[in-house]
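ok so I'm stuck.
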Amino acid sequence: MADAGLPTGWEVRHSNSKNLPYFFNASSKESRWEPPEGTDMDSLKEYMAQNTRKPEGKIRAAHLLVKHKDSRRPSSWKEQNITRTKEEAIEILKGHEARIRSGEVSLGDLAQTESDCSSAKKHGDLGPFGKGEMQREFEEVAFALEPGQVSNVVETASGVHLIQRLE
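replied:
not stuck anymore, here's the structure
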């Protein structure tokens, strides 16, 4: 699909189970969540904006989660037993926030390596969600953001988050 900015043989498909787009190469049968090497990212973003529709009443957001010892589940894909305090988690997250706001790195790129949520492998993308589907504190902030905007530190039972509204 040349108009999607993808290399020859690649196309955008939609996962019904995750309700997210993915990339598929019909000749090699390879599928992946990340755009393949050689993708024109500007063309892909434009294509996705024109060819995906948001479910009614839902928004899409990404986040970077830092858990602490008092989190609901103090373990993650990157750390079996999280022992940091809430204050330490907030300081870590504030450091990430400074890097994001300075333009040094995007929230999505940083979430891949630093988030304690399994959404890290999808750049922190939580997919579309509506009211009543997330923890109240998270939801209130996410719905108040404009697309592209990044929140300040948000505390929930899961830990502390930075949230970026995607759409």
